[in-house]
Amino acid sequence: MFYTMLAKFEGMSLTKGMELLADAVDDMNYLKMRDAAHGIKGSSGYIAASHLHYAGYFIQEKYEYD
Length: 66
Prior knowledge:
Largest sheet: none
Number of helices: 3
Structural class: mainly alpha
Radius of gyration: 12 Å
Distance between the termini: 39 Å
């Protein structure tokens, strides 16, 4: 079951989230960065990828009030 969740996470959530985050960084769009980081944080928390989860958390918090 874990491998099924991991494959789904990698194939859909992580790839899309990282692409969104990279585009937001290129555009210097802080709201998009926050939203992309939120998505990465949520999906990585779902599969217990704690380092990625916390990275998303800190990016989201940095731009929460900007």
